[in-house]
Design brief:
With about 450 residues, the chain is α/β, with parallel strands linked by helices. The protein has 16 helices and 19 strands.
Length: about 450
């Protein structure tokens, strides 16, 4: 763990294979480190020397004065072992090997040499054949795309694209990430070690993992138990079909194993299983933002009758209960709502609802046995964000939100809610599935 901390909190970073050509990986990595606001020192390395992005370029690692903490490698595979020997001489604790052309391309012997050299020199490797790492507490984006918004979600993935997608959605929605690591071939550092790091990371509340085969099953169980009840662990594992398992094996030469056995292990350690990339993000976002206990009794408050029906179906299929209102509950709500509202659960405030109607409905319903609220804003409703923020301070239940069909107004209100830490989803179905995932996890 200390070696991983040295990587994430590196202060002197070298980029071997830095390029002056925009669009090349060696250029993009260097630019993202600089533009990401990294507070430490950055040393571009290229045999041509010169200057890139205003930074002096060193012709080799050995030319850099003093030691370095982390080496990011973006050169052809054959030259990487030699670079790691130089990195060891510079007392580097870690190397992020972006370069491909190792085991995934059939060059097992070259990857074994890479591992041997690194272990002899005490250098930990992330990769090879990976998309790098991003750790926002240190403003270190040695990856792409450039993501700078800090938040409570960590992403660990064997697929660089999956990692970038999940982290990118968190950036776009304002949720942010604590860290994002693309493992690639994971010849050394693996998903279990990273999950253990983020389990103790104060900046992280949820860990999202995409993995094509667990490197160490026993260690995965141990770290899963450490996370259980402490931080949400969401896992997406492909290879559920015979052809999918073959595709996973050919991607990074991972041994996927029995998917059903792995799912059973995840259940034992209370890891939440996602069925697709969208759920991986949705569930992790919920774990990152939810701070209150959830219960099965769900009340849906909506301006869209159809959206309420969709939410009800998914809730009932997911183990939640869209409970029937008792006569006294109906009277309480009827006293504060216009007569044309449909007083039931889902509670249809109808298409002319404004934000104040949601406020009145939730305040009236907070004492009728509701465990969790889902507010569906199915129209442009100015002021929705302010009302939701007010309600979260006034009611003891957790409030989830779905904003859809509201155009630019809906998008702006959703952005304000997310900035305030409200779990907001673009459809009621996605919101309900996230509620169910957190509820099941909280129940153990």
């Amino acid at each position: 763990m200390s070696s991983l901390a040295d990587i994430f909190w590196a202060e002197r970073v070298a980029v071997v294979g830095a390029s002056a050509t925009p669009g090349k990986t060696g250029y993009n990595i260097l630019r993202n480190i600089l533009e990401g606001g990294f507070r430490g020192q950055v040393f571009p390395v290229n045999p041509r020397g010169g200057e890139i992005l205003g930074q002096r370029v060193y012709t080799s690692l050995s030319e850099i004065p003093g030691d370095v903490d982390l080496v990011v490698v973006v050169i052809p595979a054959a030259g990487v072992p030699a670079v790691l020997k130089e990195a060891a001489a510079k007392h580097a604790r870690g190397a992020v090997v972006i370069s491909g052309g190792f085991r995934e391309a059939g060059n097992e012997e070259l990857e074994r040499e890479l591992v041997r050299v690194a272990r002899e020199g005490g250098v930990r490797i992330i990769g090879p054949n990976c998309q790098g790492l991003n750790y926002t507490p240190n403003r270190l984006c040695a990856s792409w795309p450039l993501i700078t918004r800090s938040g409570p979600m960590a992403v660990i993935s064997q697929s660089g694209t999956v990692a970038a997608a999940v982290a990118g959605w968190a950036e776009e929605e304002g949720v942010g990430i604590s860290g994002c690591v693309a493992l690639g071939n994971r010849c050394d550092v693996n998903e279990v070690e990273l999950a253990a790091f983020f389990a103790d990371d104060p900046a992280t509340r949820a860990v999202a993992v995409y993995v094509e085969g667990v490197a160490d099953g026993r260690a995965f169980v141990e770290v899963g138990r450490r996370l259980a009840g402490k931080k949400g662990l969401v896992v997406l594992s492909p290879g559920r079909t015979e052809k999918g398992a073959r595709a996973a094996q050919s991607h990074t030469r991972s041994l996927a194993g029995s998917h059903e056995v792995f799912r059973g292990v995840c259940r034992q350690v209370r890891a939440v299983l996602a069925e697709d990339t969208e759920q991986l993000y949705d569930f992790a976002k919920a774990f990152a933002l939810v701070s209150r206990p959830l219960g099965p009794r769900l009340m849906v408050v909506t301006s869209s009758g159809g959206s309420g029906i969709l939410a009800t179906d998914v809730a009932e299929m997911s183990g939640l209960k869209v409970f029937d209102l008792e006569p006294e509950h109906r009277r309480v709500l009827a006293d504060v709502l216009p007569p044309h509202c449909v007083i039931s659960n889902p509670l249809d405030l109808t298409g002319d609802a404004d934000a104040e109607r949601y406020r009145a409905a939730v305040l009236a319903a907070r004492d009728i046995g509701v465990d969790t609220f889902l507010l569906v804003f199915g129209d442009p409703i100015p002021g929705a964000a302010e009302v939701v923020k007010f309600l979260r301070a006034q009611v003891p239940q957790e409030i989830f939100v779905s904003c859809l069909g509201g155009g630019e107004v809906g998008r702006d209100e959703a952005a304000r809610m997310l900035a305030a830490g409200v779990p907001v989803y673009p459809t009621p179905e996605r919101a309900v599935r996230a509620i169910a995932a957190v509820y099941r996890w909280q129940q153990g």
